[in-house]
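Quick illustration, no need to memorize.
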Amino acid sequence: MVTETKEEKILDLQVFTRTPHPQQQRFCDSKAKRKIIRAGRRGGKTVGIAIKAIDVFVEGLRVLYAAPTGEQTDRFWFEVTTALRPLVESGYYKLNETERYIEKIGTENRIKAKTAWNANTLRGDYADLLILDEWQLMAEDTWGDVGAPMMLDHDGDAVFIYTPPSLKSSGVSRARDPRHASKMFAAAQKDTTGRWEAFHFTSFDNPHLSEVALAEITTDMSRDSYLKEILAEDDEAQAGLLVYGAFDETVCKVRRFEIPKHWDVYTGHDFGSANPAALFVAKDPTTGFFYCFREYVPAFGRSTYLNVQEFKKMVALPGHEGEENPPLYNVIQRVGGNVTTEDEIRQGYGAQGWPIIPSYITKVGAQIDRAKALVEKNKIFVFEDMHRLLEEINTCMFKTDDMGMKTNEIKDEKRFHVLACWRYLFSIFQPEVERGPAEEQESSFIPQG
């Protein structure tokens, strides 16, 4: 009679974790002994490191995860307990919810989540893998006085995770130097020994980020918050790279109101079978100001016919929304697409009753300059619930060259679909010549053509 040993029964147990997205896979695969991860909110940094921690634990090693508050450990602990439940139910592993650890009975093989913000709160343990999450909020001695010595006996690995500190986090930070995490990241980037590796990704690198989550994390965020908490940019000088850095959200981000029926409407369009986009803008005839009041970014590609039906719904006059053939605002011009390569697409929209013209200006840089001229004079207003447009305005940046100097190219240009609509549309408006103070007060923008 053949009987299974205890170890054979344990080997039969299966543990399943989430499939990491590409940015998570990068740091999970890294062989560096010291890793530092700078990532945006909801980018998946904690879930990603939980996947790594579970793999290390299953290999029989000891893992310690620490964050400044119990609430911050919740996400990690949820991933761990969900994945390792089969091991606990087998009876060979012990789960302690109070102390938040799972261990293989009779061994030092353990995974634990605890709160720690300085050297004293981290003391009393050791690990083969130490993870310090929200590192920017911890006191510097957490690593130097306790964390680093922890690694000596087993030549363990350490991972530091942070989001660049903003005004929101300054009141809860235990760090003397608020930029200590940023400085560690910079040093890791310069390491040539292979011992350190630095990883950077944004909230939008998480492919699982939903439109609902996008609205949630961007509502009421300042430009500083976008740069630090969404793009995970450390250096405040990054604000100088913003394409539309002159957009003053304290003035030009406004509460939604009903667009008067007599106002003219203009639309901008960015084509694409997978990522079509449209922007709807109304012009106040009294002031000449523009109000961005609708954005169209479907979750998946639709036919030209279905796109046009959605466009018509978005320009239905107030009180007629939802009607089969509602009366519409007076749409003066519809602008979009590359002048030389997308004429057939424009013809397709025209055949469906939505004629679109190309911009009079063909170069992207010149289109942007026209739009910036309006932005600089606070002529363009955006409703505060236009989450995608506001996100793109606050994150669209110029690339830098090898010397760190700003170039004329847009970083990740293909990601900014609504801003493509924006520059196509506003490039048709030419500022009047301003000859003096009196005329400057009366200056307005008129469409070309």
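Residues 1-6, 167-171, 435-444 have pLDDT under 50 and may be disordered.
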